[in-house]
Amino acid sequence: MTDSTALRQHVSSPADGLDAPRRYWAVLTLMSAMSVATLDASVANVALPTIAHELSIDPASVVWVVIAYSLMVVVSLLPLSAVAERIGFRRMFALGITVFMLSSLACALSTSLVGLVSGRIAQGFGAAMLMCLFGGLVRNIYPLRKLGFGISLNAMMVGVMSVLGPTVGAFILSVASWPWIFAINVPICLLSYLGVRFLPDVPRNQVRFDWLACGLSVVAFGLCIVGLDALVKDPVHAAWCLAVAGLAGWVLLRRSRDQTAPLVPLDLLRIKPVAFAVAASAFSFAAQMASFVSLPFYFQKVMGHSYTEVGLLLGVWSLAVAIMAPLAGVMSDKFPVAILCAIGAGCMALGLSGTIMLPLNTGLGWIMATMFFGGVGFGFFQTPNNRAMLAGAPRNRSGAAGGMQATTRVFGQSSGTALVAVAFTSSAAHGAVLGVVAAIACALAALFINIVRHLNPVADLDL
């Protein structure tokens, strides 16, 4: 069966999803889990200086509070999405909420760096158990005709929580001690338990779990992220990490090539709309992360703005993403995905280009306008592209599609960070500008992919 035939059969099947009012309760449950997972990352970053001071931890070591969490999420997403397909989404959701809640409590009670980092590793594992479900749950909660709207709600929630995260963290630290940064998760997790029974019953995968592929996946993704992070600081160490990661990845791909439901979803990547969406997503998130790492240096060191103004300018981008998400969701249900994504990627590239082309003495309003335009482009891109990724996968592989979506996002963000590190190493004086140029190049790559996708009739079917 060809990609085109398989996809048309999938698209023409009866719309699935939950009926109201169960759908509304399932959405509230999903939103609560998504909010706690999104808030936790940004809130914890704000508390790092306070944690370092009160626990007498070296500032260079306290960053492991963030690194341990992120690394565990990266290496766990694909294996856990495969496990979720086998044990059921609702059971995995309940387990994820439990692990996340107990580990949050452990972090709040920690009195040393070892205890706190151990708690954050467990917390990252719990977060990955939830994150690997988000895409698949959306695919099964909403009827296909409303899938774009559902994805837009997710994007809006992430955008709003990203904006509120630093503010919420600062507020908590102003009225309470740092352990409450983590303890606040407990009541939200308890509330999420109430909605587990409303989540959809997703068909399970009966294929035996591949433990060797799981180990290879952990090695490949873990060492790849470590290698990218060390690319500038320790090139020799980075080279070894990337070489071993590449070897593990090659063996993993060879092993997964002929499997029915492989841990690395090569079966989904053979579906052209999904493959195009994955490639475009990786470049898009690399562009966003490269710009978010570079622009604070550019705004502060080159343009002379204060920390408060830098925070405001970055917040405008996230606000634009949150505002644009609902509109993009509605339009993604009516217009071709490739055209919408091409417009979004082009707007993101134009917004970033306009930001660094403005005169250094430009008023704050004009910079906010270019940042808002870039955020509008990213928000316009994200929802249609995620819709193509999730809708292109068969329903019984929605867990793998959701895990692949989350893994692509994290990998793209890590690659964007590595590009900025290379830019600063190439030129200390112009590193910030080169980092933004790298972000623009990634956005243009996403634009090019969508042009090719539009010219390919199989990849631009109405989903």
Features:
transmembrane, single chain, 18 helices, cell membrane, about 0% strand, about 475 residues, about 80% helix, 3 domains, Growth Hormone, Chain: A, disordered N terminus
Characterization of this structure:
The structure is a single chain. With 463 residues, this protein is mainly α. The chain has three domains: 18-197, Growth Hormone, Chain: A, CATH 1.20.1250; 211-258; 262-458, Growth Hormone, Chain: A (Up-down Bundle), CATH 1.20.1250.20. It is built from 18 helices and no strands. The chain has helices spanning 3-12, 22-54, 59-62, 64-87, 89-108, 113-141, 147-175, 180-183, 185-193, 211-229, 235-256, 266-269, 272-302, 307-332, 337-357, 364-391, 398-426, 431-455. Helix 2 (22-54) runs antiparallel to helix 6 and helix 7 packs across helix 16 (364-391). The radius of gyration is 21 Å and the shape is globular. The chain starts with a helix and ends in an 8-residue tail after the last helix. Residues 1-15 and 459-463 have low confidence and may be disordered.
Structural domain count: 3
Q: Distance N terminus to C terminus? A: 19 Å
Which blocks of ≥5 consecutive residues have pLDDT under 50?
1-15, 459-463
The tally of strands reads 0
**CATH H level, superfamily name of the largest domain:** MFS general substrate transporter like domains
Question: For the record, what CATH class of the largest domain applies?
Answer: Mainly Alpha
Oligomer: single chain
Biggest sheet features? none
Shape: globular
CATH topology name of the largest domain, in short, is Growth Hormone, Chain: A
Strand content: under 5%
**CATH architecture grouping of the largest domain:** Up-down Bundle
Tell me the Rg in angstroms: 21 Å
The sequence of SSEs as H and E is HHHHHHHHHHHHHHHHHH
Number of helices: 18
Q: Structural class of the secondary elements? A: mainly alpha
- The whole-number mean of residue pLDDT values reads 81
The percentage helix is over 70%
Pfam family, one: MFS_1
Membrane topology: Multi-pass membrane protein
Main location: membrane
Protein name: DHA2 family multidrug resistance protein-like MFS transporter
